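Hi there. Long-time user, first ticket. I'm pasting a complex I've been working with (about 595 residues overall). I'd like to know whether the download I got is complete or cut off, because the file seemed smaller than I expected. Thanks.
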Amino acid sequence: MSLLVLQDVGKEFGAIRALSHVNLTIKPGEVVGLMGDNGAGKSTLVKIIAGNFPPSHGRVLFEDQEVHFTRPVDARSVGIEVVYQDLALADNLTAAANVFLGRELKRKVGPFSFLDHATMNQRTAALFRELKSETRPDDVVRAMSGGQRQAVAIARTRLAKAKLILMDEPTAAISVRQVAEVLDLIRRLKDAGIAVILISHRMPDVFSVCERVVVMRRGTKVADKPISQSSPEEVTALITGAKEAA
Amino acid sequence: MSELSPATSSDTSDFSNVGRARWWRRGFFASQTAYVAGALVVIMIVMSFLSSAFLSPGNLANVAKNFSFVGIVTLGVTLVIVTGGIDLSVGSTMALSAITCAIVMQALSGTALDGIPLAGMLVSLAAGLGVALLIGLANGLLIARVGLSPFVTTLGMLSIVRGLAYAVTEGRGQAPTGPDVNLFYDITDGNIAGVPVAIIYLIVLAVIIGVVLHHTAFGRHIFALGGNEKAAALTGIAVERVKIAVYVLSALSAGFAGILMVGWLGSAPANLATGYELTIIAAAVIGGANLNGGIGGPAGAVIGALLIEVIRNGLVLAGINAYWQIVLVGGIIILAVLVDRLRTLRMTT
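Hi, the file is complete. Here it is re-exported in full:
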């Protein structure tokens, strides 16, 4: 069974062709690196999978069913979560409030339902322990480091029981030690049977956690091969166009 | 690092590099609301020494009543401000709700409804609040659905609603009449155990809004909208519905306060609460609500409204020209925000 299949997907914005004839298959629990220069079509591809907009051509299948996402909520409802580069957190709320935002745990008291702060804090603390992140559930996000914010954003996706997690440059703005933590987390997501698409510019990250690397250039897929049969040099050549395809 | 102390609770004791601010530097104690409350206490103590009349029961009741009207509306407007919006139409809404309530009461007196106890009054209260509801709905739909700017939308609504208040009454004040009019005065302008009912309404509403903001999903979504509207939408929060709801609640709080003012004045003039929107927004901001959204609460709304009224009252007792009060209120707004700015600068360096 395939988790996600893109068949001949294309996207045009007016006269601009951002993506053409992309075929991509992701299996459950697979970690795939998505690489490419700025403007290569990575973001467009990710936004189609995440449901920000539908493709102009082609079909998207999730768990062998054709899906038509028009809003991010549609993609989330089938089990696709995104960790955005700007992390999409509410700075004025606590870590626990952000993790549970939009799916708060509530306790019924008569006809009213109130937030269950204690349980949300405990479950958030457990998620942070799992991520080995030194982050307090009741601390406000505004005061947090880049790595802590990353942990909050990742904890959100863990809570959602996602089947496929799209990570947009998760290691771009954090410390060396935290990069290792995030990469460890990706390995643990894989162990838990969760597929990850890692969008990254960092060659070492992709080559240390991914099984497969997909390279985009000028809106088309120019390579899709196992990491073991590729090399950073080859990928660099593919990204820049020094090598046409592989 | 001197401002950080090692974590003490058991589950966080293993944090090697994440310190925690001391208790007076986080939570409520570190908020603008807290130091404005402190300033309020100091001002009240100084005032009681300067003027023996300040703490007299009559003056306190007067202060309580005056600030309650503004305070109730500030509660509603604070919700809007927390989402990152603004509501300039509340002063006009107070007037049109008050006028509608009084006119409906006049129209119903002498009809068959007189025979049914309370019917006339309840219908007129519902009419007054209903008008507020419609105004709030119009604001909310234009801002959330159509995507107009809150400032421009509610500025337009300020003018439309004030104009309607004049057009409907042709400028004449409307007095409530009918069989229930004494009861109407009791519930809007009465006293319970010597305490004006207006301040009781204010406190009850403040507690309810506090619970809603901090202990319900709706309240959390209000804060999320002000913190990062895009993130809120991405998590699946019904952004439009929350926005419409806060403008409706803001208008309802204005309508309610307007009706209370009818009881206090014994009449609903078309110029009722003219310019109140500025005092109300000032009260919210002094109390710590951030016009960029994401920060604010009922305690701040009440404290901000009280501070403005206490200072106004103090100037009256000191015999200072009423025009200077306006100047001073403006000065306090800037001072409160300035102190907060300096304080956050110090904490982040």
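A couple of notes from our side: The first helix of chain A runs from residue 42 to 50. The radius of gyration of chain A is 19 Å.
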